[in-house]
Specification:
Blueprint (H helix, E strand, L loop, with lengths): L1 H7 L6 H9 L2 H18 L3 E4 L1 E6 L25 H13 L4 E6 L5 H17 L5 E5 L5 H9 L4 E3 L7 H7 L8 H14 L2 E4 L2 E2 L6 H13 L4 E6 L18 H18 L4 E4 L1 H6 L3 H8 L3 E2 L6 H4 L15 H14 L3 E2 L8 H6 L1
Parallel strand pairs: 1-10, 1-11, 2-3, 3-4, 4-5, 5-6, 6-8, 7-8, 8-9
The structure holds S-adenosylmethionine (SAM) and iron/sulfur cluster (SF4).
Iron/sulfur cluster binds next to loops.
Length: 359
């Protein structure tokens, strides 16, 4: 306990100290959560920003070993929202004062896809008088494509590194040119260069992953000087290659606790970045996202994908809210966020204070 108190008084942590914090249980863990909650309140306040999440397509050219919508999963029914459906979802977000949307989908490259996103960005800006902020999350693209989308109005981009350890990265991805670790690193640097607020993150509780890997992931995020983070527990999916390793996984509850500790430690390490409360937390604990908001996260991504498609964006088992329509999610979220001691920053972009400070 004394040791944890001593570590928490410091301004930066060594690898060994992060591992100690990740191992903390009971009172020691409560001390960590109290320190991260205090840091959050002091540096970003108790305001939570909404990003209306539009999972616009589950068609993907990649074959990540953990993901239910990987190209190799022939059991998935593929869908692609029409432009109108996407713009209607964005309109819903705008009319409900969400402030921002996230366009997320499988990774596709090529001029047709680039142009489509570009047009959608113009459409979203038009329907909201330029007021709706847009985050993109459509994987690795060239610098030119990132720049085109930035110029069309996207200003934040989420690209998880998934694991910053190259060896582990290739245990959870095919080792080929389509899944190159180096290309992902280059993509993260290009995003920064193109002008975006850059978000990355990892999955927590992956097969073969150790606390040392997770400590290195946090150090990686600090060294990359990221503006935003989205990280959450890994949840197995039966139609993926990693399913074979499910017996070696931590129990779900431990993965959940580890994810909360990762968020808390990152909040203390990078005080004014935006940290999202991942949907996967809610798949394990019905009030999982609210717990994360309490101890350090400040962003939530209500799903506003039309209900009939949600079942097909199954990255993992037990994905929450797949049978709801957008408005249901909004109502239940509002009460839950207030319960977590936070208020909602309606109609605000809620940009990363860290990004603003650097620029
Ligand atoms: N295709 C884009 C990409 O990979 O960046 C965006 C969509 S992808 C589905 C979004 C995130 O889902 C990934 O970064 C990954 O971390 C997460 N994900 C995929 N499968 C998962 C699983 N089984 N458990 C938890 N998260 C998962
Ligand atoms: Fe495609 Fe993203 Fe899933 Fe990988 S994680 S298979 S890139 S949707």
């Amino acid at each position: 306990m004394d040791n944890i108190t001593h570590i928490l008084k410091k301004n930066s942590f060594t690898h060994a100290e992060i591992v100690q914090l990740l191992s903390s249980e009971k009172e020691a863990r409560s001390l960590l959560f109290a320190a991260s909650a205090e840091t959050k309140e002091k540096y970003v306040g108790n305001v939570v920003y909404f990003r209306g999440l539009i999972e616009f397509s589950n068609i993907c050219s990649k074959n990540c070993y953990y993901c239910g919508i990987r190209s190799g999963n022939k059991k998935t029914n593929r869908y692609n929202l029409t432009d109108k459906e996407i713009l209607d979802a964005a309109k819903f977000a705008y009319e409900n004062n969400y402030g921002s949307v996230v366009l997320q989908g499988g990774e596709i490259e090529g001029e047709a896809f680039t142009l489509r996103i570009e047009k959608l960005l113009h459409g979203i800006k038009e329907l909201s008088d330029g007021r709706l902020g847009v985050t993109l999350s459509v994987g690795e693209q060239s610098f030119d494509v990132y720049k085109r989308w930035f110029n069309a109005g996207a200003h934040r981009y989420l690209l998880r590194i998934e694991s910053s350890n190259k060896e582990l990265y290739y245990k959870i991805h095919p080792n080929d040119s389509t899944h190159s670790f180096e290309r992902r690193m280059t993509a993260l640097r290009n995003l920064r260069e193109a002008g975006y607020q850059v978000g990355t993150g990892v999955m927590i509780g992956l097969p073969f992953q150790t606390l040392d890997h997770l400590a290195d992931d946090l150090i990686f995020m600090k060294e990359m000087d990221i503006d935003m983070c989205g990280m959450g527990p890994y949840i197995e999916h039966a139609d993926t290659p990693l399913w074979d390793f499910r017996d070696g996984l931590l129990p779900l509850e431990e993965r959940f606790n580890l994810a909360l500790k990762m968020i808390a430690i990152l909040r203390i390490m990078m005080k004014n970045i935006n940290i999202a409360s991942a949907t996967a937390l809610q798949a394990i604990d019905p009030i999982g996202r609210e717990k994360a908001l309490k101890i350090g996260a400040n962003i939530i991504m209500p799903n506003i994908t039309p209900g009939m498609y949600r079942d097909e964006y199954k990255l993992y088992e037990n994905k929450p809210c797949t049978d709801e329509e957008a408005a249901d999610c909004k109502n239940c979220l509002e009460a839950r966020i207030h319960m977590s001691g936070n208020k909602i920053g309606y109609n605000e972009w809620g940009d990363s204070a860290h990004f603003k400070e650097r620029n």
